[in-house]
Design goal:
Layout lengths: L4 E6 L5 H12 L2 E4 H14 L7 H10 L2 E6 L4 E6 L2 E2 L7 H10 L3 H14 L5 E5 L2 H5 L5 E6 L2 H14 L6 H17 L12 E4 L5 H16 L2
Parallel strand pairs: 1-6, 1-7, 2-6, 7-8
Antiparallel strand pairs: 3-4, 4-5
The chain binds 2'-deoxycytidine-5'-monophosphate.
Length: about 230
């Protein structure tokens, strides 16, 4: 059967990752969380006190960091590893969330991540979510989805995620973080978050998770069976 690339882009906390993961599982495809790669890079930069304004420091850090994903059979999750260490939990903390959009504006960081993402999707059969997947990473993707959702809904969802990981964060703090990241992500010079002309927009504010997944799987199957 024909294998395709599904690109899912959109603002933070619109349900991209959980939808993409489920869509990949329904299609028997690989799921790649490109945001996790920017988060792991940010964690490395924080831990090594990298000066973001010093291109030499940034280049050295990029040469020394290695990111990959390993499937955890115990929880069924594809988890993020940084230089051989499982950082899946650490990269979701507010400490990383507060810095990640700034790190993602750096041209050299984007080039390194995009090159690795393109390699990961080379053999197709992949669902990747992020901000520039349909525009920069896979401009030829067979299916492009652009997800949006109301800010209150997004903040509530992110709060639940953080709570499930054991931290209660004030809703206003989350909203501020999301708004700040939206702004940085969509106004940065290097591959800003924009909807690709040929992307299909899905507003998830009032959709159940199951409906969200069903819509994307339906669109993908139409293309696969064409
Ligand atoms: O999807 P996420 O919230 O985990 O992504 C974290 C940050 O990474 C996000 O604020 C912007 C950046 N990012 C990016 O610039 N490009 C991508 N393809 C994915 C994420």
């Amino acid at each position: 059967m024909r294998k395709i690339v599904v690109a899912i882009d959109g603002y933070s906390a619109c349900g991209k990752s959980s939808t993409a993961k489920q869509v990949a599982s329904a299609l028997g495809y690989k799921y790649i969380d490109s945001g996790a790669m920017y988060r792991a890079t940010t964690l490395y930069f924080l831990e090594h006190y990298i000066n973001l304004d010093n291109p030499k420091d940034v280049a050295k850090a990029l040469a020394n960091l290695h990111i990959d994903f390993h499937y955890n059979e115990r929880n069924g999750k594809n988890e993020t590893y940084l230089n051989g260490l499982n950082v899946e939990e650490e990269i979701r903390t507010m400490r990383v969330s507060e810095k990640v959009s700034e790190v993602s504006t750096i041209k050299e960081v984007r080039h390194a991540m995009v090159a690795q993402q393109q390699k990961m999707g080379k053999s197709k059969g992949v669902v990747m979510d992020g901000r520039d997947i349909g525009t920069v990473v896979f401009p030829q993707a067979d299916l492009k989805v652009f997800m949006t959702a109301d800010m209150d809904v997004r903040a509530g969802r992110r709060q639940e995620e953080l709570l499930a990981a054991g931290t209660l964060v004030d809703l206003d703090e989350i909203k501020q973080n999301l708004a700040h990241r939206d702004h940085l992500d969509s106004t940065r010079k290097e591959s800003p978050l924009i909807k690709a002309d040929d992307a299909i927009e899905i507003d998830t504010s009032f959709l159940s998770f199951e409906d969200q997944v069903a819509q994307v799987v339906g669109l993908a199957k139409k293309i696969i069976n064409k």
